[in-house]
């Protein structure tokens, strides 16, 4: 948001930055959630399709904020004016190639939301652009974003049948989890958390990446199980972090994968999970449990 001061947006940059800092976690979580969606591209950037998913989830379109305005806002936020470059921030991409012209990086996402706020709440924006930005974040984004049946899914995870399946397969799952936590660097000491790359490798080894469970879906699952855990966590997790998932998150991710693999809603989650553990993960049994190299 500090970059906007350099564009001559008097009164917006400083106060907008304060608002962005106040709601940093919300901005970070929503960006990661939608950037990992099925819109293509990297999970660290947000495509137009992914941005539109946020707009629709939050029901932001009205007479003031039209479809055309949203498209223009996306393009404007994605465009660097001649001679002006963005300063480095904690959420800024490290390499220029990570900032594609057709997708938003985090600071561009922040700017896009500010522009959305100015259009959606023009009366408030005339008085204070920062107040309009804060109203958008608190009344729209925080209330409606990232709410895609997360509560229902997590409630199903607490079912006795699901927990029973996890207990029955606990030793096997723990061995698989630890194996892939450390598979990329076995000499660095034992890790107890798994990054997205390792999780994707696990599923590739299971030979289940396909049309129903694409790489983009895998990234989205990884992000969603972390966001769900962070809702109940007031502080930083010393065992995980925003780019790693711990064992409890891994369990949720495996349950989510089982639902993608067997999408029939008339089959209970416990049965889908049990079926996946008995069939979908057999391809890595020898590799992990018997110490043999995968093919």
UniProtKB/TrEMBL annotation:
GO terms for molecular function: tubulin binding. GO terms for biological process: microtubule bundle formation; microtubule polymerization; positive regulation of protein polymerization. InterPro entries: EF-hand-dom_pair, TPP/p25. GO terms for cellular component: microtubule. Pfam families: p25-alpha. Residues 79-104 are annotated as: Disordered. PANTHER family: P25 ALPHA-RELATED, TUBULIN POLYMERIZATION-PROMOTING PROTEIN HOMOLOG. Belongs to the TPPP family. This is Uncharacterized protein.
């Amino acid at each position: 948001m500090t970059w906007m001061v350099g564009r001559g947006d008097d009164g917006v940059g400083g106060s907008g930055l304060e608002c962005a800092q106040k709601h940093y976690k919300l901005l970070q979580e929503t960006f990661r959630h939608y950037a990992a969606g099925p819109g293509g591209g990297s999970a660290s950037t947000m495509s137009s399709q992914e941005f539109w998913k946020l707009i629709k989830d939050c029901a932001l379109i009205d007479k003031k904020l039209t479809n055309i305005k949203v498209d223009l806002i996306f393009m404007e936020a994605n465009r660097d004016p001649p001679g002006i470059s963005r300063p480095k921030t904690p959420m800024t991409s490290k390499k220029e190639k990570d900032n594609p012209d057709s997708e938003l990086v985090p600071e561009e996402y922040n700017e896009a939301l500010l522009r959305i706020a100015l259009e959606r709440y023009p009366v408030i924006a005339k008085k204070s652009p920062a107040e309009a930005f804060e109203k958008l974040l608190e009344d729209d984004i925080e209330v409606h974003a990232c709410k895609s049946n997360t509560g229902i899914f997590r409630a199903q995870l607490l079912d006795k049948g699901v927990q029973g399946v996890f207990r029955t397969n606990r030793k096997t799952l723990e061995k698989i989890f630890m194996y892939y936590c450390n598979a990329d660097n076995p000499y660095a000491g034992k890790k107890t958390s798994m990054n997205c790359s390792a999780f994707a490798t696990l599923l590739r080894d299971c030979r289940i990446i396909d049309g129903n469970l694409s790489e983009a879906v895998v990234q989205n699952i990884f992000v969603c199980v972390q966001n769900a855990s962070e809702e109940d966590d007031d502080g930083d997790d010393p065992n995980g972090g925003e780019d790693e998932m711990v064992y409890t998150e891994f369990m949720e991710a495996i349950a989510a994968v089982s639902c993608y693999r067997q999408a029939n809603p008339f089959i209970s989650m416990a049965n889908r999970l049990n079926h996946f553990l008995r069939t979908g993960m057999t391809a890595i049994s020898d590799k992990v449990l018997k110490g043999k190299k995968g093919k």
